Amino acid sequence: MDLHAVHAAPSKKFIDVMPNEEGEFTYMADTPGVFMYHCGTQPVLLHIGNGMYGMIIVEPKDGYPGDASVDREYTLVQSEWYKENDYDAMLGEAPEYVVFNGSDFALSKHPLLAKPGERIRLYVVNAGPNEVSSFHVVGTILDRVFADGNPANVQRGLQTALIPAGGGAVVEFTVLEEGDYPIVTHQFKDAAKGAVAVLRVTKDGTDHGGMPMGH
Questions:
Q1: Residues near 31 by Cβ (< 8 Å), separated by ≥ 6?
Q2: pLDDT at position 215, please?
Q3: Is the preceding peptide bond at 19 cis, omega within 30 degrees of 0?
Q4: CA geometry: angle at 36 spanning 35 and 38, to 5°?
Q5: 177-205 in b/e burial notation, b at 16+ Cβ within 10 A?
Q6: What radius of gyration do the chain's Cα atoms show?
Q7: How confident is the model at residue 186 (pLDDT cuts 50, 70, 90)?
Q8: Contact at 8 Å (CB) between 141 and 173?
Q9: Using CA atoms, how far apart are residues 43 and 96, in angstroms rounded to an integer?
Q10: In this structure, are strands 161-163 and 167-174 parallel, antiparallel, or unpaired?
């Protein structure tokens, strides 16, 4: 297991555990941020490409600036799917799908929800294994972006946040009007393969069931 949130010697801690064996180690979660974890057994590319990854959120001890103003929080993991177990495809071919939270367009069919005037916080990880995420919310400006989710790494007023494979971010913005706000990677070849979500903003914060806006 490769945990991006730790200080540890990989050759001592990130070791293979054979069938019918057990292994464990402990670590201090003392660096705040949004981190990826994934299988660390060779070949790592094949295992990440088959979905062996996840997100770790280490909240700052004193919180993020403006915590009190955040109305809703969501988590998004971008990743790629190639031909199953096809290592050569993962090495050299374009992914068949690029997705949020494991499924193409699922968060368009079942939108995230908010009300007008609410401040939204997204915890985002780009699991890759190969593609960059140019993270963008259509119809608003990213008020604050904390690169890798660390409060010391604050950027303001971004239109698009660049998140490398294996990286993360905390993204905050405010939605002012009712309507659908697509969430995409601005690598549109990847958005066309499924990396599109929708934040649906309604007066009462519920889903009216209408056809979501595409992008």
A1: 5, 7, 58, 150
A2: 77
A3: no
A4: 150
A5: eeebbbbbbbbeebbebbbbbbbbbbeee
A6: 18
A7: very high
A8: yes
A9: 20
A10: unpaired
